[in-house]
Each structure stands twice: as structure tokens, then as C-alpha cells.
Amino acid sequence: GENVEQHPSTLSVQEGDSAVIKCTYSDSASNYFPWYKQELGKGPQLIIDIRSNVGEKKDQRIAVTLNKTAKHFSLHITETQPEDSAVYFCAASRLNDMRFGAGTRLTVKP
Amino acid sequence: NAGVTQTPKFQVLKTGQSMTLQCAQDMNHNSMYWYRQDPGMGLRLIYYSASEGTTDKGEVPNGYNVSRLNKREFSLRLESAAPSQTSVYFCASSEFVLGNEKLFFGSGTQLSVL
Fold it and tell me: What is the pLDDT of residues B22-80, one digit of tens each?
């Protein structure tokens, strides 16, 4: 089955800096790559996703890039704010099979 | 809309005890899922139900059973709890079975098995 690796496991940045989280996947048939944000005591919530026919997608301060050849994708958060502090999960999916990365704990220091 | 509601939020069991985790969604979604979340391992799929009346094993099904009671409700049962089942459990739903679409998660059940 699919294997998703996520790095780093923890990330600390100053407010206003950018944060980048990277994921690699193993199954070339995967065609959907969502990112979820999990705040303390809550369930994960989708923040952005990208499909295999697109190389980049932006939504305000967050963006995701996908390199299908290298089988990796990344989450970019610009102008970080304290409310961005959370655990972020990447995932790779093909029909009937979605696998998650182990998560990245992002801390944004005021 | 409440979205996905899970009960209970916390539970402590002794080894060998049984319990059922309840999940309900009010979004008229066809598909529902149970995940477990362990430190350093992300979210792993236990069982899913693509539609009412069907259930399928996920990545880590051993020690669990599920019931899709109706379109709204999907329960997870531990028949004889083991310490290895200490985890945070999340129920999720989506309009169609796992694929290229958004999952809606509940707020989780923290389970400790002593």
C-alpha cells in the first residue's frame, strides 16, 4: 500500500516568517493530496488540497506544490500567525485508499 | 449543523472489557470511517462504510468490529479491549467513498485501556 513520509515532525517559527512542511509518497497511482490542520482537542480539518493534474494551488496565505515525478508535495504558509499553531497532516489518496503522514507540530512564536 | 458527533469524549477501560464508540453525521453523507491516531503514526484507517449496508476493513482492523446502523450512524466496537488499543479515535464522513474529496472529522474519543 501507499507510504507517506512527512518532515519535519516539529517546526518552530517566529510570527511573520514562512513555514514549509514536506511529504513524499510511494504509490505513483495516488492522485489526490489533501492537507489537514488539527488544533488541540479537535478533529482534523481540511485546509487545502491538490489533484495530480495541478502543480500548485494557493489560498490566501497557504499554498501547496506537487512534483509528481519526484513524488513529493509541500505545504507553504506565509506570514505565519499564532493561530497557525497546530498539527498539520498531509495525505496521499487513490480510490478507496488514503494514507496520512505522521504529522508536523507547528509552533508560531509571537 | 452539528457535522460529525462522537460519543463518548473520554473513556477508561480495563483489559478485557468491551465498549462501543458511537458516531453520527447530519450531512447526508454516504461514506463513514473510523480512524485511530497514535503519536508519531498519523491517522490510520480501521474500518470504513462506503454506503449504508456495507463495511470494509481498513489498514488496522484487528480487534475491532463496526456496524453501519443507518445512513447517519456508524459505530465501532471493541469486544475485548487491550492496552494496544489505547489511542484517540476519530470518526469521519464524506459524500462518497475514499477518493478525491474532503473528509469531515468528529472531535475524537480518547480511550485508555489499563
Answer: 999 999 999 999 999 998 888 999 999 998 889 999 999 999 999 998 999 999 999 99
pLDDT for B1 equals 65
Cα angle A10, A35, B44; round to 5: 80
Let me know: does A21 contact A6? Beta carbons within 8 Å: yes
pLDDT class of A94 with cuts at 50, 70, 90: confident
Place of cell 446502523: B69
Q: What is the identity of the amino acid at B67?
A: S
Q: Do B98 and A97 touch (CB under 8 A)?
A: yes
B97 interaction partners in chain A (CB closer than 8 Å): 95-96
Provide φ and ψ at A83, rounded to 5°: -70, -5
